Amino acid sequence: MSGSHNRILQVDLDSGKQDVMRLENNYWLKFIGGSTLAARLVADTDGPTADPLSPANPLLVMTGPMVGTNFPGSSRFVMCARSPLTGIWGESASGGFFGAQLKKAGFDGVVLRGKCDRPSYLAVEKGRAEIVDAGDLWGLDTYECIDRLKQHHADKQQRLRVLAIGPAGERMVRFAAVANDKAHYLGRTGMGAVMGSKNLKAVVVPGNQKIPVAREDAYRAIRQAALADIRDSMICASFHDLGTAAAMDMGMLTGDVPIKNWSLGEGYEMAAAIGGPAIHENMLQGRTACYACPIGCKPVVQVVDAKYPVSKGPGPEYETCAGFGTMIMNDNLAAIAYLNELCNRLGLDTITCGATVAFIMDCYENGLMTRADLDGLDMRWGNIDAVIELVKKIGLRDGIGDTAALGSRAMADHVKGNAADYSVAVKGLELPMHDPRAFHGLGLAYMSSSRGACHLQHTVQAVEQGMVAWPEIGLKEDYPATESSGKAKMVSICENIGQLANAACVCHFVFWAMGLDNFLGGFNAVTGYDFSMADCLAAGERAWVLKRALNNIMGVTAEDDRLPKKILTALADGAAAGSVPDEKLMRREYYQIRGLDEKGVPTPQLLQKTGLGFLQKRLSSV
Fold first, then answer.
1. Domains of the chain
2. pLDDT for 508-547, tens place per residue?
3. Cβ contact 283:301 at 8 Å
4. How far apart are CA 236 and CA 553, in angstroms?
5. Is the distance from CB of 94 to CB of 77 less than 8 angstroms?
């Protein structure tokens, strides 16, 4: 397959031994790349049953066939392992430049097994990897570590890209993130903790190889057509001008934004104080873009404030503005930017971190936790100085931070009474900052997502909210937002096409804007395949079923495909007032359409249909 080197570097961190895995073309044809190929490789090992923080849990860094070309949005890559936060399939994606640089170093991915005997980093160059002592890096925050490594490799600095963990990853905070340079992060499912468990502080990659493209003339023409569609996209223009935080103001009008740990429906003044326009007016210094990105949605901010200073660097995304804003009743934008940088430096996922803070505030308000339980912190709503101290404690696993480092679901087991009612998570992963009471299909997608509640394993948000319509694959223009019946078919198609985009490692924003014809044309031109739209959907279905089967092996059943109590409780005000997803109806319709049995396990017929019959024996005992 063009677009691929057919070279996956395997490194045993125990011994330092390494080799290059080459796959039969059928693997690439069926599993494409990204998290789908990672899942297929894990399916051949004991990885699905290994303790997430044990040396036996493999950590995979994977790219896709379009990564490293200059096709729009071809910057993404993933890290995959069994998640220490959820105990099931874990994956986290990022943009930036690292994925392209790894491809240009001659590898499609890296598989890491075992554990370094001391703090180390991995230097990938000239077709091999070197395990380097990182004793002088251990304890540094992510910014400091990245700066130190770029100084150390100064001769390659222009080509060097770095993944690094901070103090949170070193201490195996269950939702530790991985910094991708300083402007991008692999936040969800705790891949930073997996790196920390392997004594791996960082991965550095320089590279300058050209990525092979099968059909150059067709590729150039399709690329230009895709760029034209992206330039005409109002969504992309909004993200360029205001960043992803542009979703704050509009989301408040539709009921999408969570407020006070998912308890309130109205907060218009708060949204206006912390959304995209407010960032633009008060702290924006410029914008950056990922590799091969025509949008440039990343805000660069700086805050000169005696109390909440923020150095010039990456600004808060929408999820962070909600997580440390509306979720905890805070309208201080400077404080949100400060917390964003603090989490970046410590290496913390801002979604789970913000949700865990909100969970603690809810428990505090409802008498389940006291100041004595919280190291003296007064965790009333909006007390931002207490929040900052708590986040520091989480990153360092100090005092109450040691328990909060488990995430809200596991922390609830350590709190008295009905604390679990205040944890808003699916399969242990806290919800992203989009309320499924406003969009019921999104609720089903949270229930069925392979990594727990997620808005990036599918294209449901874009379709259900009317941002895109793809009638050629059965996705129409108008889906009543607060209806549950009939959403299962839409969600399954959105999952299939979203899984393909993720396997190809293409940015969803660009994917939405360029149209399916341009994506498919670009994919075929790069790879040399002749995929039809039906082939794309079949590949996406295979990806979903594969990850579902791995999760079943790890213990997931129908009982785990549920929404949390807060989401099944109607709001009294706001755009989604009175609306509650019909969990049972959607699950029943979805299982029938997907081909799952009553336990939530793929049927033998579904496994055979998707070419995954080799998993049937392992699933027979589930």
1. 8-205 (3.60.9.10), 257-429 (1.10.569.10), 437-562+582-619 (1.10.599.10)
2. 999 999 999 999 999 999 999 999 999 999 999 999 999 9
3. yes
4. 40
5. yes
User: How far apart are alpha carbons 596 and 605 in whole angstroms?
Assistant: 10
Handedness of CA 368, 372, 375, 381 (dihedral sign): positive
Going by C-alpha positions, the residue among 204, 206, 183, 203 that lies closest to residue 195 is 203
| Edge-to-edge strand list for the sheet holding 200-205 | 128-133, 120-125, 200-205, 161-164, 178-180, 184-186
Burial class (CB in 10 A: 0-12, 13-18, 19+), 619: buried
Model confidence pLDDT, tens digit, residues 114-132: 999 999 999 998 899 999 9
Rounded Cα distance between 143 and 105, Å, is 23
Looking up tokens 């019959």 gives 613
SS3 sequence, 297-358? CEEEEEECCCCCCEEEEECCCHHHHHHCCHHHCCCCHHHHHHHHHHHHHHCECHHHHHHHHH
**250 phi, psi to nearest 5 deg:** -65, -40
Tokens 């997620």 belong to which residue? 454
CA 544 to chain centre: 16
- The pTM of the whole model exceeds 0.90: yes
Q: Where are the alpha helices (DSSP H) in 171-309?
A: 191-197, 216-231, 234-242, 247-254, 268-274, 276-282
How far apart CA 601 and CA 39 sit, in angstroms, is 17
